[in-house]
Design brief:
The structure is a homodimer.
Chain A (H helix, E strand, L loop, with lengths): L1 E5 H12 L13 E6 L3 E7 L3 E8 L1 E2 L2 E2 L1 E5 L1 E6 H10 L4 E7 L3 E6 L2 E6 L17 E5 H11 L14 E7 L2 E7 L3 E8 L1 E2 L5 E6 H10 L6 E6 L3 E6 L2 E6 L18 E6 H15 L6 E7 L3 E8 L3 E8 L2 E4 L3 E5 H10 L4 E6 L6 E5 L5 E5 L6
Antiparallel strand pairs in A: 1-7, 1-9, 2-3, 2-8, 3-4, 4-20, 5-6, 9-10, 10-11, 12-16, 12-18, 13-14, 13-17, 14-15, 15-29, 18-19, 19-20, 21-25, 21-27, 22-23, 22-26, 23-24, 27-28, 28-29
Helix pairs in contact in A: 1-2, 3-4, 5-6
């Protein structure tokens, strides 16, 4: 194997596939990046066996030569060193050459690295996915949907299925749902598809977080293929594979109350900052719990009390309050997470009593909702 | 105590004095910030008993009212909460009022915090320093001198005196010297003084690091007062006290070789980047050791070899090489630290053999030098 490549393109691709590489793996070869040079270009692969990322660097693009292939071939190089080295090379082009079996030379200007490579034949094969049922969604929308749901997955392994996000496709609508059983995030959007296949799978939260880091903010369509135990995201020159979580995701639809007894509309930012302030003292207490009470004159009061330290109380003018008076306590962290995930300058909170879950929605937008379970204190 | 203050000024002062506050203290009241309101303005104090910082906010400045004093007095508030609270308050002005003994109310807009304060009488007194012998130095120069020396202090407590920087004032020249016994950094500069008092003290490296973070990059003069066991830095509205280290600092002058057998001049950045690349593999080995050898045609070769991973070799064109051929090994980290501390685009390295300390200096500037002890490998 021998090729000369534009350094910037190599650095970018290495950075992308590094997102899948971990040093904590039981399969030593997965600490490496697989490099394959064909007559079409260079393909890099990184994997931790849960997530696999493949980045392709074409020989040329828009008439520009990006890679000059001198000899095809393949090698696996230690990801940790290879990624650091390419970042710090002195010149704009890099030559990579496999000599004497696995010895690999990296040349750039007057700098020459010799790395001990590993046999690319030993590298695990990526899942083979037939691309019959593809659906599509703009990249930037996908990133938003991930951001608005993935924070609500469970971080505890007691119910592993809850560490993933439930992706439900039906009638060309994708619904993403995450819950840790104390709160729930739901976001829906239309997808583009040639058929109307249905899916109901659970994607690990970690995979979605890594995917989100790699994707750009363009509105180009990304292809999504779901199989029995894998999901594949296909962007330009990039393949992202993730295994799916096994097991049945709980039916969350009955958790979401359809009626409400008190409805409060507030400006999102003003409310978020008040909760943030109230949580400054509450954080030291056990549960970071703050209180909310409706008061006369369509205002609400946010407060918290930690006797050893002090207390805080704040009034916020609501845009509108309808229904019964209410006093309720909840986790400030969950509330702030939910408010940050919602879009729109104004939100409506629908309560059905101090002991029942309540729902946050942007005004006049039913594609997203955030649900939070209250805490018993009043 | 009761006053109304501009929030931005309060936030800035709190941030400054926070640099001295630690949560790991055996004196509980030092986890707090002391706030004193007088008819002249508000003074904040933070201390960990090694470092004490006092920040003064005047009642008015350039005709602008900054603080409105309603009632003089003093209180100590938990630094951790107070600093977080003031940063997040909703309005541009803040009212702080001590009610019922130690209960303190912080009001901003419709937000009201109640904090349990501590008795300001219990707060330790700052050292009393008579300001007879003051010398002065521009603030930005002081910051440069700290940056160029403090990194070389020892991080080990086996010889506590080496965890400080030796400040030596003689004939109106300040010499700052730091060494961890494997390398040494020296920087000299003229000071401004009404007398020609001499000092030879050792200031803890940690104190200088914290001081450097607080000072701005202006060229305004800062007053420095050295006493038997304290040093005081006086900037505008800011007092920074540090205790001095006890004990005798080793005589370092005899460490610095006066002659040389090989002199190499190189471009600082080019050399730094080559060392950085060579250290990528060497870091994994025991000591992060790289090798340097003069080669024919006034070039040098930088290399490192870590058999399990690979090796790297690079040639650098020297600006000039004089004297004997040389092969030498040294810590890449020490070399990079030294190169980053030196100013100037070109440096001269003076070697007196593979086993002797060598010295780095900018071309034609004898106010600074960096010395490194080689490692035995050749």
């Amino acid at each position: 194997m021998r090729f000369i490549i534009q350094r910037d393109r190599l650095v970018q691709s290495v950075q992308d596939v590094m997102k899948a590489v971990t040093s904590r793996t039981t399969i030593p070869i997965l600490t490496g990046i697989k490099i394959v040079a064909t007559n079409e270009g260079v393909t890099l692969t990184g994997s931790d066996s849960d997530i696999s990322i493949e980045s392709f660097i074409p020989k040329e693009e828009a008439g520009d030569e990006i890679v000059e292939i001198k000899q095809t071939g393949a090698i696996v190089l230690q990801a940790k060193f290879f990624s650091e080295i390419v970042k710090k090379l002195p010149t704009d082009t890099v030559e990579i050459q496999v000599e004497n079996h696995l010895q690999t030379v990296i040349r750039s200007g007057k700098s020459e690295f010799n790395l001990n490579g590993l046999d690319a034949e030993e590298y695990p094969h990526l899942p083979q996915i037939s691309e019959e049922n593809v659906f599509r969604i703009p990249t930037d929308l996908l990133k938003v949907m991930i951001r608005q749901t993935v924070f609500a997955v469970s971080t505890s392994e007691t119910r592993p299925i809850l560490t993933g996000v439930n992706w439900n496709v039906e009638n060309n609508v994708l619904a993403c749902i995450a819950t840790d059983s104390h709160r729930l995030a739901l976001r829906k959007a239309r997808i583009q598809s040639e058929n109307d296949a249905s899916y109901n799978v659970v994607i690990p939260g970690k995979s979605l977080n890594e995917l989100s880091k790699i994707l750009d903010d363009s509105n180009e369509l990304i292809d999504i293929v779901i199989t029995e135990n894998q999901v594949l995201f296909k962007a330009k020159h990039l393949l992202f594979f993730s295994r799916l979580l096994e097991g049945n995701y709980p039916d969350t639809s009955r958790l979401i109350p359809s009626d409400s007894k008190t409805e409060v509309s507030v400006l999102t930012k003003e409310f978020l900052h008040a909760i943030d302030r109230a949580s400054l003292l509450a954080r030291e207490g056990k549960n970071n719990v703050v209180k909310l009470a409706t008061i006369e004159g369509s205002a609400i009061e946010v407060s918290s009390n930690t006797p050893e330290i002090g207390n805080v109380v704040e009034q916020i003018q609501a845009q509108e309050i309808n229904g019964e008076e209410l006093k309720i306590s909840f986790s400030a962290k969950y509330m702030m997470d939910a408010l940050k995930a919602l879009e729109g300058s104004e939100i409506k909170i629908s309560f059905t009593g101090a002991m029942r879950p309540f729902v946050l929605r942007p005004i006049e937008d039913d594609s997203i909702l955030q649900l939070i379970l209250p805490v018993r204190t009043y």
